[in-house]
Amino acid sequence: MCDDFAGYKAGFEKGMTEIGCMAHARRKFFDLHVAKKSQLAKQAMHSISGLYEVERQARDMSDEDRWRIRQEKAAPIITTLYDWMLAQRDLVHNGLATAKALDYSLKRRAALTRYLDDGAVPIDNNQVENQIRPWALWRSNWLFAGSLRSGKRAAAIMSLIQSARMNGHDPYA
User: Fold this and answer.
1) Contact, 2 vs 18, CB < 8 A?
2) Is there a single domain that holds both residue 69 and residue 108?
3) Which of 3, 4, 40, 162 has the most other CB atoms within 10 Å of its CB?
4) pLDDT tens, 74-105?
5) E runs forming strands in 77-150
6) Residue 160 is part of which domain span?
7) Which of 139, 167, 166 is nearest to 154 (CA)?
8) pLDDT one-digit tens code per residue, 11-32
9) pTM for the whole thing?
10) Does residue 111 belong to any structural domain of this protein?
11) Is the domain of 104 the same as that of 68?
12) Domain for residue 172, yes or no?
């Protein structure tokens, strides 16, 4: 699951399956709405929030039950959303911020809707991004670890801490 970073394209060409992050698609419309007070962006965000409501309902379900509710409730929302985006795109001039927001989702439709096919696949990669955010924020500070050996040691310790957290352990204990 990823955004549109070009570095991932080689993996897709070698057979990796691309799964898009709906949060990244939503963010394009959010940024457009903040910058331009776009009603089109507001409508897109409203539809996407419907998808997240389905995910809230399915949060504690088994993968199979989550797949079923996605097919029943989320798939029609996505179909309507993409039909609407295609119609809107025909009305918007190339190069405008609105066109760019629409194009991001339209060009990635297959990847962004792939989560519907598997109840184990999340709608977005927010959980992973939240896990790595502290490390990304401090990345520039760690350039000054002192030596290559110290940097490797810091990386090993950070990996242990995150692995402990992800497995429900208190790393400090």
Assistant:
1) yes
2) yes
3) 40
4) 999 999 999 999 999 999 999 999 999 999 99
5) none
6) 127-166
7) 139
8) 888 888 989 999 999 999 999 9
9) 0.77
10) yes
11) yes
12) no
